[in-house]
Amino acid sequence: MNIFDEIKNKLSHEFIDIIEWLDTSNDTIVHRFERYQNEIKNNAKLIVREGQTAVFVNEGQLADVFKPGTYTLSTKNLPILTTLKGWKYGFDSPFKAEVYFVNTRLFTDEKWGTKNPFMLSDERFGLVEIRAFGTYSFRINDPGKFVVDVVGTDGNFTNYEVNEHLKSLIVTRFTDTVGEANLPIELYAANTSELSETCQDVMQPEFGRVGIELEKFYIENVSMPEELKKEIFEYSRLDKLDMTKLSQFKAAKAMEAAAKNEGGTAGAGMGMGMGFVLAQQMGNMMGHGATQQPFGGQPQQAAVTPPPMPAQVLYHYAVNGQQAGPVTFDKLKELFASRTINRDSLVWKPGMANWSALKDVEELKVFLGGSTPPPLPTV
């Protein structure tokens, strides 16, 4: 061993009297200050910069925590370590302890998302699959708890390591929160701000248990299959539509098309089947048209046309105090069979003055079983 190796070896065994950490990375959360045999000598200087906290750990036990500032280490500012070491008359020099520097700045624009779609139950569309993603921001607000419960003995704990844990927690709590909300499926995408705030309130206690504060939580998108989107748009349009006006509009279009054809009257008759209300109106119009006479004074024989197709009756029903529908007779029967509604559920259809129990609506009694059909009409 030459003279330079001896000097290097000797220096490596000298006690370090300045303890500090200059963060040159963008992703380090906890850095353990490395020195020979973890030895610190009396009156060593500790420098803690803004955005940092220094944590002393003695043989796996949390000791003293230092906020930003410059300290000369002594029994006065190491009370917990003094107790753990049993220093009655001042501490020995040197002493052994691990020093961890914790980055307490705000970590922003962290990504989260559901790796796989998860299932939600919707009253109208049954089980549906949705995905979601967004961002969040956090900071370490209890460095001591974080070092002991999360970091352990890791000498260089990075943002990536903690994010893997946090993302799993976020997805789990997000899925639980959305499932318990039990909202119509389209409202999740339309109310991301309110949903983000609710999720943040739910997740904050979980973060706090390991010394982390969830500063911000954002849901940027809640997506669903394209087929389901189309169904929701169609359902929304029908729900907002004035069916009477729609029937009148379709009947007017049918009459216009019929007037352009030679068999105009027959065409008009076919158009009448498009709406329940217009079927009667068009029937009256056809009756009046048949009695009119042309200029020649000879009555014109009305063309023989089939009667309009019977209009399909649509029903509204109530579930858990909420109005739903309209649905067809067959769909209502399926809801009864699946026990979504029962014999006492309230139903309503056009022509009824008030809501009535299903068991009191004549044509719906067939759902209950044991009913007999009415007598055939006489010819």
Automatic annotation (TrEMBL):
Residues 315-364 form the GYF domain. SUPFAM superfamilies: Band 7/SPFH domain. Residues 30-239 form the SPFH domain. Gene3D superfamilies: Band 7 domain. It comes from the Bacteria. PANTHER family: FLOTILLIN BAND_7_5 DOMAIN PROTEIN, ZINC-RIBBON DOMAIN-CONTAINING PROTEIN. This is DUF4339 domain-containing protein.
